[in-house]
Amino acid sequence: MEQVALLVHVILAVALIGLILVQHGKGAEAGASFGSGASQTVFGSQGSGNFLTRVTAILVTLFFASCLLLGYLTAMRYKPTSIGDLVKSVEQQAPVEPKGSVESDIPKPFNQTKD
Length: 115
Description:
By secondary structure, the protein is mainly α. The protein has a domain at 1-24 and 49-82. It is built from 4 helices and no strands. It has helices at residues 2-22, 48-78, 83-92, 102-105. Helix 1 packs antiparallel against helix 2 (48-78).
């Protein structure tokens, strides 16, 4: 399930990047890439602006939903089922033994008196 969600997420990301790169800015004429005759364009008399904007909004919504789904699936994979399981996992960890005494780790001060 998680691999399918990840594959859909990547496909949505690539489609969204491609769709955004195809669009023109607000200053560019909307019909420049599809011909100047407004009634003869592929997307109708409104031009490509509304169509591309709607498809972009739909892809962004699907991308956001896939982000939430992936986050939920990841959280469910690593989530303990109860507080008892959490306590047991902490108890099963081996105690950490110190490597040496604390005093041996402290550096000795330099002798500041001159002979």
